[in-house]
Every structure is written in C-alpha cells, then in structure tokens.
Structure prediction request, 92 residues.
Amino acid sequence: MPEFANDPEGDAEWEGLLQQLRHQPLAQPRPFFYGRVQARLAAETSRAWLPGWMRRPAYAMLVGALVLVLSGDDKALASGTIPPAASAPIRR
Prediction:
C-alpha cells in the first residue's frame, strides 16, 4: 500500500486548498457581455442562408423526395422492366 494513502497531513492540505477555493469571489462576465451575445445572435439569424420554411425537417425531406422523383428516368419506371441494352451481356 502506498505511503500517502494514510497520510492525515495530506488530507488537511487538500481541505485547506478547497477552503481557499470556496472563499474566492465568483467569476463575473466582462461588462456588456450579454449585450454582445444578443447582438451576435440577432446578426446570425438575420443572415440565414436557408428560407425559414426549409429549416423544418418535414419540408426539407419533402423537397428532397420531390427532387429524387423528378430527377429519375421515368421510361424505366413506366415499363416495369429493365431495358434490353442494360440486361444484355457484354461481348468482346
């Protein structure tokens, strides 16, 4: 067992340090901190790069699904079969 495990003086030193920390004054933010935070938040919301309705997940997924549907090849979907050129084996 290490020697410092049963050292009562070590405990007293730690208690003294903790007491010093407890008596320290509480940290305070610099002057006008909250005003600067409010100004930064207002500036960030004013320059949003997405429209307000697109920031909602349901609308974003709807637009994504619409893009996928409109960008597909409708001829392959309409026939329900694979075109013959795509299913033919490659001959060399």
Observations:
- The radius of gyration is 34 Å.
- The chain has a mean pLDDT of 77.
- The helical segments are 8-22, 33-46, 57-71, 74-79, 84-87.
